[in-house]
Amino acid sequence: MGNLWQVNEESFSPNLKQIHSQETVFTIGNGYFCTRGTFEEGYPHETAATLLFGVFDSVPVAKEELANAPDWVGIHLFVNSERFRLDKGKLLAYTRSLNLQNGLLTRTVHWESPSGVRIRVNSERFASLADKHLGLIRYSVTIDESPKDLPVAISLRANFNAAQGNYNVMHWETTDQGHSADLLWLQSETRGTHVTLVQSMSFNADTTAFQKEFVDGDIEPSIRLTGALSPQESIVTEKVVVMYTSRDSEDPHKATLTHHQKMLNTVAEETNSNPHNVLVFDYQIQKQDEAWAHFWEQADIVLEGDEKAQVALRYNIYQLRINASDDDSRYSIAAKGLTGFGYRGHIFHDTEVFMLPFFTYELPHIARNLLLYRYHLLPAARKKAASNGYAGAQYPWESTLNGEETTPPSIVHPETGEVIPVLNGFIELHITSSIAHATWEYWRVTGDDEFMRDYGAELLLSTALFWDSRAEKKGQQDEYTISNVIGPDEWHEHVNNNAHTNYMARYNIRIALSVLKWLQQTAPSKANALIEQLDLTEEHLTYMRDVMEHLRFPQDPVTGLIEQFDGFFKLAKFDQEKYRGRKDSYQGILGVQEIQKYQLIKQADVLMLLTMLRQEFDYNTKKVNWDYYFPITDHDYGSSLTPALHAILGCELGHIDEAYQMFMKGALVDLENLRGNTPDGIHAACAGAVWQAAVFGFAGLSITDDGYTTQPHWPNNWQRLSFKFKCKGELISIDLKR
Q1: Half-sphere exposure of 510 toward its Cβ, with a 13 Å CA cutoff?
Q2: Which one, 51, 79, 224, 583, has the greatest CB density within 10 A?
Q3: What is the CB-side half-sphere exposure of residue 626 using CA atoms within 13 A?
Q4: Cβ–Cβ contacts within 10 Å for residue 422, how many?
Q5: How far apart are alpha carbons 346 and 332 in whole angstroms?
Q6: Is residue 1's pLDDT more than 60?
């Protein structure tokens, strides 16, 4: 049995796409910052990035993006003045592993310099989960052989690299830099948003034989250690970095240096060391182990009988944790988290539909903050609704810190290269009901009445008001319609009465009215205040109920088949057999306009509705719609979001083989770069869907008014599923065995 807590790389490939993909895979983080898995010594054309939670800078068109901070991981090694780097000299052996149990990234390299010196380099790196401002690297060099057994001159240069951008866009400029007896520091500011970042560094060794030198500079300040090693001798160094921004402290410079120096002094006292040359890695890794052990004690899923699935499942849970702040409700989790530049750090409905259930069941305090992010941005959502001529609150398709719409009006299609308009920000509406649904589910699972009273009720009622104003009643017909939208499918634009959009709008109104009734019973003064604030007259409430009851839902009353939108069944069928072995999505093959003529789906639409609200629909409805829509969905190159989500419905319907295939497509999407875009960052929503597939799908967990039930569905070889979750404050352990 292999180590089921490790993601391993057994050899080095110079293929640049592979390098960039692995940079994403080996990201370390703690929710405050994430750092991609680039090499300390650097590599040509690498995509180094450290992204901090909620730290943005301005960009044209897309308004703002997460700003790539000065790179803190650099340690440049020179051996007899020859630079150690994987594209130089001769690589004799290489391994790298990410320990998911404690977030430690380890790499071992056996290398021969051009002049024949053989060395071993070992690096260990982590972002502290116990101290969110802290990043550490332990970097050791051992001389194996040298020509004529002569001593080898060694120079190690630990630096901050301020010349890092988001690809070609530079966001930071150095505003100050300096050093004290122990610490070197760099102060930077974003060019457009004026966020200040201060980073401090100490760089110490396990020997006093090496000379230390501080080298100041605005672009690459560094601390250098120089000396000599004879064959079989080693040096162990530690680079310790502390980071604060002006979002954390009024004086981030003072906060950074005080924090860093205090840490050095504390460890020096406890280990009887010299505070000017203290080694802290062992002390801090112990705290790291404890913090991660606490997390995994709650969040781990034990899966016996399928080692590949077990490691992949833990990897996706790891990614969910490192990309979510523990205590900051000013920002949420982006589609790529903090792991890459894809989607610029913008927030989509990915968070509420795919990721938030994990936090609701495992880390409800983080789920609460993610929903508070949406609550804080209600004013902007109201402004968006009003600007479009509607009431209530309409959430933007993409958002950052101020809640304004940040969807770019056009993009270059990643497959076809054509410039295409992006209509999502104008007519993809269902994000509003997704947020409402997540709010309701959080309350239903956690029982957090205080949240619902003070925040959730206003959010639910405000979003419900948007839907009742967006729905239209034409002539004397006894139904309301919602026209000109993009549904979750996204390959069909300007459609009328998208089934998912309409049903979720009805659901949004229903749960809002339910919460209002609850509020009137439990907190009447709060209810009255909201009624007055939102102008919820009895006449208006009657109208909302009428919209809820008569909003069009295109379903055959006999067969139960749901039409994805008006006219979908009249579209041409598509012969997928002609495209076996394709490497592009059907939209990439056919084009943005042509694909709209066919019954081809990018991602779950009707089936996502039946999964999100699975308690609302009977078995036959789920079966007939699965049979129709599953075969016409592009599971390979459509969207990464929904393969793992399909697994939930597949399990319920007894399609265990298909469910397992979908689960693994999601679980391995980044570990194996299945879609070719992992270099842009991890698929954070997919990580959440993988957790949901395991818990709601294969374990069949369902929360009821009376407690919970499970109904396990077993893929081949699976023997056990064990996990914990929180329900109404109680920690519940589930251990299912075949």
Answers
A1: 12
A2: 51
A3: 23
A4: 14
A5: 9
A6: no
Computed from CA positions of residues 496, 498, 503, 506, in that sequence, does the dihedral angle turn out positive or negative? negative
Local structure of 658: helix, strand or coil: helix
Question: Does residue 419 register a pLDDT over 90?
Answer: no
Work out the average pLDDT over 64-68: 98
Task: Return the CA Rg of the chain.
Answer: 27
Other Cβ atoms less than 10 A from the Cβ of 161: the count is: 17
- 3-state SS class at 57: strand
Would residue 490 show up in a list of annotated catalytic residues for this protein? Answer: yes
Could you say which DSSP state residue 731 is in? E
Q: What is the pTM of this model?
A: 0.98
- Write out pLDDT tens, residues 292-311: 999 999 999 999 999 999 99
DSSP 62-113: TEEEE--PPB---EEEEETTEEP-TTSSEEEEEEEEEETTTTEEEEEEEEE-
Tokens of 599: 């019954």
Which of 647-668 are b and which e, b meaning 16 or more Cβ less than 10 Å from the residue's Cβ? bbbbbbbebbebbbbbbbbbbb
Q: DSSP 3-state assignment of 129?
A: coil
Q: Which of 472, 490, 594, 616 is catalytic?
A: 490
H helix count then E strand count, the chain: 21, 28
Element (H, E) at 214: strand 211-215
Q: Taking 70 as the threshold, does the pLDDT of residue 172 lie above it?
A: yes
pLDDT in tens, 30-57: 999 999 999 999 999 999 999 999 999 9
Structure tokens at 199: 């980073």
Contact 368, 324 (CB under 8 A): no
Indicate the DSSP class of residue 561.
P
- Residue 212, beta-bridge partner list: 225
The 3-class SS string of 453-488 reads: HHHHHHHHHHHHHHHHHHCEECCCCCCEECCCECCC
State the amino acid at position 586 in one-letter form: Y
Structure token digits, residue 88: 């130089």
pLDDT value of position 478 = 87
Length of the chain: 738
State how far the Cα of 199 lies from the Cα of 35, in Å rounded to an integer.
14
Tokens encoding 565 = 């939108």
**DSSP secondary structure string for all residues of 664-680:** HHHHTTTTTTTTS-GGG
Other residues' Cβ atoms within 10 Å of the Cβ of residue 710: 14
Give the pairing of strands 196-205 and 211-215: unpaired
Residue 237 DSSP SS3? strand
The amino acid that residue 648 corresponds to is I
Q: Is the pLDDT of residue 275 over 90?
A: no
